[in-house]
Amino acid sequence: MTGFAPLPEEDLHAFIDGELEPARARAVADQIAADPALAAKVAAYQSDKALLAAHYGPLIDRPVPLAMHRAVRKKPMRLNFARLAMAASVLIAIVAGFGYRALLPGGDVIGTAVAVHGGAVAGRTIAADASGISETLGLKLKLPDLSKAGYTLAEVAAVPGARGKAVKIAYRSAAGEPFTLYLENSSGREQFEITKRGDVLVCLWQDDVLSTVMVGKMPAAEMLRVASMAYNGLYF
Questions:
Q1: pLDDT, tens digit, 9 for 90 and up, residues 141-156
Q2: Alpha carbon of 214 to those of 21, 118, 130, 167, 180: distances in Å?
Q3: Quick one: pLDDT at residue 217?
């Protein structure tokens, strides 16, 4: 038992799509962090979403088949506007929800975070507390405690980011595996993604203020659980 009320499916999908209000998103993140089964469920939904995007997303740039053009010219169509509206909404959902977000997951922010995690970007050690992070980014943030997930703090550093100043918070698991929390000021567009880059899993969690990227080697369900704990642990 986790002590939380059952999470409505619509809230779960809105969370995955980055459409919840910040306060509600953090409450949902808390619930995911406390429930491994729920984290696995969300990771499975995210995987399905990415699979659909990879399979159907490229179709958006293809021309309408010639045979379809001919069929439309030959036969007058009787439009049912209710069905037409429903079909349009489904298409928009596929393109906006699956195609755009999954085919373009975070752009340079993710690439920079992966490079920082791999040690390809040099940084400058800063105070391993809220002051070091807040002064670098100009935001009121604190240092997440990931000890309940089995991670200990290794380093906090200021690094060059994709859009300006950024912060690297490095952790290590009990087995010595590195986990990186990369922070940068947001571009303003809310976004949530879990994607694979080489041999690491990456979670981008971006609100209207902060871009948070988590990088490490772990199963998707574990990444979601640790990412929820890290993201929620940043805010006072």
A1: 999 999 999 999 999 9
A2: 21, 12, 18, 12, 6
A3: 96
d(CA 73, CA 50): 36
Residue 67, number of CB atoms within 10 A of its CB: 8
CATH fold of 108-233: Phosphorylase Kinase; domain 1 (3.30.200)
Record the pTM: 0.62
Token pair listed for 153: 């703090």
Residue 2 CA neighbour count, 13 Å, CB half: 15
What is the distance of C-alpha 6 from the center of its chain? Answer: 23
DSSP β-ladder status, 165-173 and 210-216: unpaired
Taken in order 104, 46, 34, 218, the sign of the CA dihedral is negative
> Domain segments of the chain: what residues?
108-233
Q: What is the pLDDT of residues 187-233, one digit of tens each?
A: 888 888 888 899 999 999 998 899 999 999 998 888 988 998 999 89
Q: According to the per-residue pLDDT averaged within each range, which of 2-6, 84-88, 180-184 is highest?
A: 180-184
